[in-house]
Amino acid sequence: MKKLIGIVVLLVAAVAGYFVWLEMQKTETTDDAQIDGRIIAISPRIGGHIIEVPVEDQQTVKKGDVLVRLDPKDYEVAVARARADLEDATAQLQTARGDVPLTSTTTSSNLSAVKSARQDSAVTVSFQEQQKSAAEARLASAQANVKVAEANATKAAQDVERYRALVAKDEISKQLFDQAVAASEAAKATVDAVKAAVNEARHGISAAEVGVQQAKARLAQADANVETAMTGPQQVAITESRVKAALAKVAQFKAALEQAELNLSYTTIAAPADGVVGRKSVDVGQNTAPGQQMMAIVSLDDVWVIANFKETQLRKMKLGQRVRIEADSNRREYTGKVERIAGASGARFSLLPPENATGNYVKVVQRIPVRIELDPGQNEDHALRPGMSVTPSVSVR
Length: 397
Hints:
- By secondary structure, the chain is α+β, with helices and mostly antiparallel strands.
- Helix content is 53%, strand content 20%.
- The protein has 2 domains: 28-71 and 272-395, Efflux pump adaptor protein, beta barrel domain (Elongation Factor Tu (Ef-tu), domain 3, Beta Barrel), CATH 2.40.30; 78-245.
- Helix 2 (73-168) runs antiparallel to helix 3 (174-229) and helix 2 packs antiparallel against helix 4.
């Protein structure tokens, strides 16, 4: 009877063990797992003197709460200087813009004026040359008249001499002789008159030559003025280039002002997320440099589980499988799912990866980090904090 009871007990135990083994095959569990989360390093973007640190270690803060204040005076001065530079550049831009239409109008009207003056100078040159040609014609005519007058005077003088001998013989009347003498005197006066006309014509030519030279000089000056005025488009282009340069300067000083305002805003360092302050290493009176870590914010709203499963436990493990998580701190059970499986074992990411080519190889089962995401609302009381130990069980059915 006792043997029968023993056999029955053994059978029941074997059946129970079998079912327990089957159940164990449906889950993969590890106690090498911890809560992980975002630990945000707080560092300044600018250097400065710390004038206020209103938080302490382990203090809970909300997003936007002030963590550190730097002395803003130097940055306020920089903002004022950048704003003044921008206003000055803006004024120069307005002046340059006003010069463009003024230069365009001035050069256009000046070109028209010098072209008209050049045309007048050309007409004057032509007129003076005509005057010179007329004076030369009068000179030639006067010189011809001198020859005629001298010939007439010579003939009249010869007539007087002939009449003188005849009047002495009473062959002609005294009246006829007197007429010959008067004609001779008149011929001499005519010679003097035409010679005076020759001198006058020569003076006229000289005056005309001076007039022509002066008119040509004015024409050359007018041509130079036209060439100068023809540079008007280049002057307008230069003025427009000044406008572009002024625009670039305005943009430069605008960017400098924006940077100065940003630097001023960086003097107040606020919490980027809700969390708990940790590793606070600064206090009032210290000087800080850009990038220097001052404290850390541990975000309690964004935590997850990193479970290091043995490589033999990953045969059936897949993304999205359900997970039960037991926390060592409060023995509560949480739920989640497999979110990611690491691409290499933890040993491969260590400072000194294992080297198995030394001849002293010992096979060791490797562990692969698996990230487990908690279901929404599982950690609303922030009971789970980075670094806590947990035991996850992954349903691999």
